[in-house]
Design a protein that fits this description.
Length: 264
């Protein structure tokens, strides 16, 4: 096995994996992705993520949270479910939570309320937070910054922003998750110019599978579905953009994810 990577964000409970989830996980292991953190983003999604993690203890972990797209569905019962699931060993972070003003599938006020509630849960329980932000930087900072002192750790998952927002997140002490967006010459070229700004101890990598297939994969897979086995391509492009060896970036990102999520 070439590496022992950790994919810190994969939506493995997505229905596109229903027919071959076991094979997908085996391909990941064969590619050197030793551990996968499955993202919880809705009430049912949280239950599914924890169920998958508990069936694959030591290889798969889960987060529990409500994505801003689903903030309209966030209720007291959602909060109770997150608190309940967070007691399980398989759950290593609260989230995916945050703000998404790009789509606005839920009203912005509902997104802010759900976000703040989940940050308070993370504070109470002492788990790190797995954060989502798109086109909502100012409000994201406004909600998050006052609550940061009570949080153990926070990661900006799937960072796609510009230099100024990256600098602010790093100033706030956040870790940064980089996906195959950096492999997209149309939308992610700017990330290649700024990814080297991230300190070694704040960098993690992820696929966000089944989304964000690395466009630099060669040969291109027949399917457009991304999967954790493609994480080494994100690693390669990140290492190249940072001017570091693949081995070094593999080592630091695994070490960071192990420490951040409190993995064995």
């Amino acid at each position: 096995m070439p590496y022992s990577l950790i994919d810190i964000g994969a939506n493995l409970t997505h229905d596109s994996f229903d027919a071959d989830r076991t094979e997908v996980m085996q391909r990941a292991a064969d590619a050197g992705v030793a551990r996968i953190i499955v993202t919880g983003s809705s009430n049912q999604g949280n239950i599914d993520a924890v169920t998958l993690a508990e069936a694959n203890l030591g290889r798969v972990y889960a987060t529990a949270g409500v994505h801003p797209h689903h903030a309209s569905d966030y209720t007291a019962a959602s909060a109770e479910l997150i608190r309940s699931l967070a007691q399980k060993d398989a759950v290593v972070a609260i989230g995916e939570c945050g703000l998404d003003y790009f789509r606005n599938y839920s009203p912005q006020h509902a997104q802010v309320e759900a976000f703040r509630s989940q940050l308070e849960i993370a504070t109470d329980i002492g788990l790190p937070v797995f954060l989502h932000q798109r086109d909502a930087h100012d409000d994201f900072v406004k909600v998050l910054e006052p609550l940061l002192p009570g949080l153990t750790r926070a990661v900006a998952h799937c960072f796609t922003g510009e230099a100024q927002s990256l600098e602010k997140l790093l100033e706030m002490g956040l870790s940064i998750g980089i996906t195959g967006w950096i492999c997209d010459e149309r939308r992610g070229a700017h990330l290649k110019d700024i990814v080297s700004v991230i300190p070694d101890d704040k960098l993690m990598i992820e696929t966000d599978a089944p989304y964000l297939m690395p466009r630099t994969l060669s040969p291109r897979p027949k399917s457009r579905r991304n999967e954790p086995a493609f994480l080494p391509e994100v690693l390669r492009v990140v290492a190249e953009a940072r001017g570091q060896s693949i081995e070094h970036v593999a080592s630091i990102t695994t070490e960071n994810a192990t420490r951040f999520f409190g993995l064995d």
